[in-house]
Amino acid sequence: MEPYFDDRETLRREERLRIQVEALSRMVEAARRQSTVLRKGFEDLGVNPGDIKTVADFERLPVISRERLVEMELERPPYAGLENPDAEIDRIFISPGPVYEPHLGEEDVLWARAYKAAGLAKGDVVLNAFSYHMVAAGLTFHGGLRKVGATVIPSGASSAQAQVQLIRDLGATAYTGTPSFLMAIIEKAREMGYDFRKDFRVRKACFAAEPLFPAMRERFETEFGIDTYQMYGATEVGDVAYECREKKGWHLCEEVYVEIVDPATGKAVPPGTPGEIVVTRFNDIFYLFRFGTGDLSRIVEEPCPCGRTSYRLAGILGRVGDAVKVRGLFVAPSQLQQVDAKFPEIRKFQIVVGRSGHEDRLNVRIDPAEPSGDFSSLEQAFHKAFREICTVRIDRIEFLKPGTLTDEDRRIVDERSWK
Predict the structure, then answer these.
(1) Is 410 among the domain residues?
(2) Distance CA 79, CA 69 (A)
(3) What local confidence, expressed as pLDDT, does residue 356 receive?
(4) What is the CB-side half-sphere exposure of residue 242 using CA atoms within 13 A?
(5) pLDDT tens-digit readout, 14-62
(6) Is there a domain that residue 76 lies in?
(7) Taking CA 367 as the corner, what is the angle to CA 329 and CA 410, rounded to the nearest 5 degrees?
(8) Are 134 and 179 in contact (CB under 8 A)?
(9) How many domains, in total, are found in the chain?
(10) Are residues 151 and 125 in contact, defined by beta-carbon separation less than 8 angstroms?
(11) d(CA 392, CA 51)
């Protein structure tokens, strides 16, 4: 029997759309009452809550990119005036930029649909390798696991060796985290003398924050006997989509309204056509309408054999714009500008993102203002500042001959293949 989280997953599509449009209209009305910033914005656009009767009506609101959200929060901290001032905020998370994110309380079903679709339930012991620090991942994934009854091992960003010990000692049956880190754990287990498939009980894995490449999935499932599932979301809007047992696209969550739009116009593209994923999460705390994720996908309309009636995303086809995701975290131009401001001795620098085996690698090419025989102090300081501002570790720094990088050279180069 297919493990549905609730009956909403099998609603008729027409009924789901009616419910969603009504929810969007109510959310616009609540935002108009409670946010002076949005009230003025609606007035400037000539939008009244009662106008939101169709999908086309909702398109009158602008798409808010992550870069724009950063600018808005810097202009009007901490939440850009998009918050409900009377709401009881359970937690506040931070993502690079910085972006401050007020989150819902324990009643929210963040990620629970995804874990249910993967078959996780009471009796499962799940290693949660997402960070439990100021980013949203660890605690929100934890909450989803608890809602389906699973026991959680909050291992977070512990070393691969520590993760192996926890899996062994606590009898973990499943893993949630990035695929590259699970592969690193498996390789560490092999170095420690274990046969991961024979010596451990991990039989399911739910991945997010980075791509699961087909070759890696094949290896997890055939070599190590791990049934793998992909989940998709963004810290600003929470969970968006997930795989079921059919693994033929990612089902859209019931708590979000998802559009696929032309990045240039913000208007819907024809069915089946690739475009930017734009998400609005139904809530009464943070009124972020039409958040542009920067990811490209297309909608799959064909019915899924699992019985869920929601449309599906056909995976991630690429990125819009200049921000790039490295090891599950975005690195944006606004952050690089902050790094740049700290180092007058650097004329220009460029980050280059690639893959080494199953892991992302982030290298930096630095064009110094003056030649020098010893850049060791500068290299150390740059490593530290970059990690503090962008939260991502640099793998390698290369110092160039002064004047090598020109104004035409891009600040961010992504050499990875998304095929």
Answers:
(1) yes
(2) 9
(3) 85
(4) 29
(5) 999 999 999 999 999 999 999 999 999 999 999 988 888 899 999 999 9
(6) no
(7) 50
(8) no
(9) 1
(10) yes
(11) 43
Say whether 116 sits in a helix, a strand or coil.
Answer: helix
Q: Pairing between strand 174-177 and 125-128? A: parallel
Is residue 269 domain-resident?
A: no
Per-residue pLDDT reduced to its tens digit, 349-374? 999 999 887 789 999 999 999 887 78
Residue 399: CATH number of its domain:
3.30.300.30
293-351 pLDDT, tens digit per residue, is 999 899 999 999 999 999 999 998 877 876 777 887 778 777 888 899 999 999 999 99
**Strand runs (DSSP E) across 282-387, as ranges?**
291-297, 299-300, 312-313, 318-319, 324-326, 329-331, 346-356, 359-368
pLDDT at 168 over 70: yes
pTM exceeds 0.90 for this model: no
Q: DSSP characters for 171-191?
A: T--EEEE-HHHHHHHHHHHHH
Q: With contact defined as beta carbons under 8 Å apart, do 27 and 253 qualify?
A: no
Cα separation, 42 vs 61, whole angstroms: 8
On whether residue 338 sits in a domain, the answer given is: yes
Q: Which two tokens stand for residue 104?
A: 């819902």
Q: Is the pLDDT of residue 106 over 80?
A: no
Instruction: Please give the residue range of the domain that contains residue 335.
Output: 329-414
d(CA 148, CA 125): 12
Rounded to 5°, the CA angle 294-296-297 comes to: 140
pLDDT at 325: 78
Phi, psi dihedral angles at 193 (to 5 degrees): 95, 15
Counts for the chain of helices (H) and strands (E), in that order: 12, 22
Beta bridge partners, 348, equal: 367
Distance from C-alpha of 396 to C-alpha of 388, rounded to nearest angstrom: 16
